[in-house]
Design brief:
The protein is an alpha+beta fold. Helices cover 34% and strands 18% of the residues. It folds into two domains: 3-44, Arc Repressor Mutant, subunit A; 56-133, 2-Layer Sandwich (Alpha-Beta Plaits). It has helices spanning 3-14, 20-27, 31-43, 80-84, 111-125, and strands at 63-71, 90-95, 102-108, 127-133. The chain has a four-stranded antiparallel sheet with strand order 2-3-1-4. This is Lrp/AsnC family transcriptional regulator.
Length: 158
């Protein structure tokens, strides 16, 4: 990826609502050149979308937890993500190495709601769970520094 594209990605990661005019000013390109580059980055899948960052406390979901899951039957099909997709309280599902198969990031209204969600997860996916409750979040949604030099071990495909 060209250095100027990395700069555009970094700027948009910090502020997804940045205007083409502001991007042009920050990169030294014309507005039309920035527009073309952003569209190309979207087409290539580098920029996959734009999202609002929500204050979960304000919408009544103040409790965040990480739920590690592993199948009760190790020979069972690896289909937990599909079995859990209907549970809106699961914000993210990460396949991981280690004892567990997946780590889920969940957001709920209360400890009682978490307990209920854990029962739903266990029943829907036939898994055991290990839960870590978040006490506070000093930061998240940090923008990557896409202008940093890429790892030489990376093959360059995006």
């Amino acid at each position: 990826m060209e250095e100027i594209d990395r700069r555009i990605v970094t700027l948009l990661a910090r502020d997804g609502r940045m205007s083409f005019t502001d991007l042009a000013r920050e990169t030294g390109l014309s507005v039309s050149a920035v527009h073309q580059r952003v569209r190309r980055l979207e087409k290539r899948g580098v920029l996959r979308g734009y999202a609002a960052i929500i204050d979960h406390d304000a919408i009544g979901l103040p409790l965040t937890a990480f739920v590690s899951i592993k199948p009760i039957d190790p020979a069972a099909p690896d289909d937990a993500p599909e079995r859990l997709a209907h549970l809106a309280a699961i914000e993210a599902c990460h396949s991981v190495a280690g004892d567990e198969s997946y780590i889920l990031k969940v957001r709920v209204a209360s400890p009682v709601a978490l307990e209920d969600l854990l029962q739903q997860i266990r029943a829907a996916a036939n898994v055991s769970t290990r839960t870590t409750v978040v006490l506070s979040t000093p930061y998240e949604h940090r923008a990557p520094d896409a202008t940093a030099e890429p790892d030489p071990a990376h093959n360059g495909s995006a």
